[in-house]
Amino acid sequence: MSKRRARLNEQLRRELSELIRTQVRDPRVGLVTITGVDVAADLGSARVYVRVVGGPEEMDRSLQGLEAAASFLRTALGRILHVRRVPELRFREDRSYEGAARIEQVLAEVLPEDETEDESQDRAEARWDDDGGGAAS
To answer: 122 and 90 share a domain?
Structure first.
């Protein structure tokens, strides 16, 4: 990804977060957090990833409200941003946290429960020293 797209992604994330918090009055839009924005290579569209406080029903309602507010948000972004064309906004549920939770669950099953992070680090350092990888004193 180009630096320009990365900057635009971050700027869109910040501006959308502020606009949704202060300007969107749709009652369907609950407590929404914009976790990321991914602008297409042609800059014509952007996937906006959101997290919502609540369950699946709240997520569905908020996504409907955000889709309804998309044209309003594009217009507001056009006044704020210095770009030729504001990308079309497509709101999606951010599922990356579910993947992270699943990885944590698998690691918890694999690692012994009584072992703390410090003990694990100490054991790894001891192995490093035993293998001759440590610094000479």
So the answer is: no
